Amino acid sequence: MTTLKIGDNAPKFEAKDNAGNTIKLTDYAGKKLVLFFYPKASTPGCTAEACDLRDNYQTFLAKGYDVLGVSADSAKRQQNFINKNELPFPLLADEDKAVIEAFGVWGPKKFMGKEYDGIHRTTFVIDENGVIEDVITKVKTKAHTAQIITS
User: Fold this and answer.
1) CATH code, 64
2) How far, in Å, CA of 87 to CA of 54, rounded?
3) Would residue 7 count as lying in a domain?
């Protein structure tokens, strides 16, 4: 789906998070960033993925990673998702899909025989200099940390 690949510069972005804060890629300069895109807050697969990242959050921090989630949900829905699942990281409320489209994760999908446009579950690992280190398109929602942290 996405045309971005390992070695590419991550698209610069700026969007509001669940709390109304403006978050930019440059906020993460000098740190590694796990940027995960998911279709819809509080759905089973997205909850499993977010909770796996939550349960391993201290491991990410210890290895120098920050974690940031993105979907097209409203800030209120993102905040409810955080509250319900005690997520320790911010979630971008990318309702205009600017970040989603910049990373190329919006497009045709199929579910139960129906075709529609939506977010393709994809995770980008971005290094300290804003370069894409990894692109994970076949996300295992219940074991996503193991896909990200390979060492």
Assistant:
1) 3.40.30.10
2) 6
3) no
Encoding tokens for residue 116?
Answer: 């529609």
Task: Compute the C-alpha angle 42/106/59, nearest 5°.
Answer: 55
Per-residue pLDDT tens digits for 49-93 = 999 999 999 999 999 999 999 999 999 999 999 999 999 999 999
How many helices, marked H, and strands, marked E, lie in the chain? 5, 9
Beta-bridge mates of residue 83: none
Binned at pLDDT 50, 70 and 90, residue 112 comes out as: confident
Range of the domain at 108: 14-148
Residue 147, both tokens = 């896909």
Selecting among 41, 46, 92, 148, the annotated active-site residue is: 46
Cα 59 to Cα 118: distance, rounded to the nearest angstrom:
31
Catalytic annotation present for 46:
yes
Domain tally for the chain?
Answer: 1
**Residue 50 phi/psi, 5° resolution?**
-65, -40
